[in-house]
Design brief:
By secondary structure, the protein is mainly α. The chain contains 19 helices and 7 strands. The longest helix is centred in the first third of the chain and has 27 residues, at 86-112.
Length: 403
Amino acid sequence: MGLKKPQLGFELLHKIFVAANIRRWNDQATPVEFLELDKQAHKIVIAYLLAHFEQLENQRTIDFERLILQFCYEFFERIILTDIKPPVFHKLVKHHNKALVDFVCTQLEDNLRGFGFLESMQEYLYGGVDNIEKEILKASHYYASKWEFDIIYHFNPKMYDVQNIKNALDKQVHEYYPLAGVRQMMYGELREIVDMFGQLRFQKRWSQTPRIPCTSVLGHTLIVALCAYLLGYDLGFSREMQIQHFLCGLFHDLPEILTRDIISPIKKNVEGLDEFIKRIEEEAVREKILNIVPDSIAQEIVYYTQNEFSNRYKKNHQVIFSAQKGEDFLQEIKQESIYQPIFGEFLKYCDHLSAFLEAKISIEHGIKSKELIDGAKNLEYFYNSKSLNGIDLGYLFREFKDS
């Protein structure tokens, strides 16, 4: 039997990248450009932090798989309904929500049919679901919007309607004050962490060559997380591994807040530099982040950011780095006593897939350079015959096409 193509297809990947072209607050005078992809990435990072504080301080059980899935539902809806301003959108939802949701699901039906969650997505977007994960996502949505608008407000507070928008966003965030993490973000040290993640929205990838769309480090991490999560359905990964891959994809570039995105040729060609940079990053993450978050969050951030592309799992409260590769690693983690497995080399594939798409989509827009052309060509050559668990992962590199 031949290899199967992944269900994550080119059309859905192009739609995900559309979010990097959607400008937010484009009717306001903004000091920087705010993009939908970055906002969504910031939103799910905030949701992760709120979820942990809800567990720690309010002793509520959070289903992280449900949190990730519901985030995906909202994200997919947003990339279809790109041009509707929030006040208009909320009025439409109030009076025509079913028709809007049906339109979204129709547009995504061919892209999402194989994943098995289209019906639950439709039910969720209809408003028929009420759970703590949805509450956390709403709070995260409003806080990420408020975070953006606070920058706009301080840039030009006297513009028309600016004060009214600020007041409305402040009120929306205050409605979620019962969530422990919201209180921490408003008055505690958690605000500084959210600001640090926000800085990755302004840090551009491929900084030495023009691209369209010009994705940020934070936007890139969300694309890696989504690719890892969606491809996991094809590959038959466990529920726990799916969660770990999404979160590791989301956090893997966190140290770059503190060192900036040092380009690969410099890392590879200056002897010992890559290892030295890793040490600087670890020290900076420990000082700036780990020392001001609860221990349970600190341990997870270390697990996701240090040796981020290694194959690993936890056993008896110890992190085990595996020497096994490929399907041999997948056999190794079938032990009953292991938990939080991360297939690091698969995440590296997803990281490189994101970089490949960044280069190829820009080239298709007519913005190209030697770096983009060579980068895409090298990645295609490296991954064109890649397969795993009967899935042709090389297809997404070898057969890339415009949607």
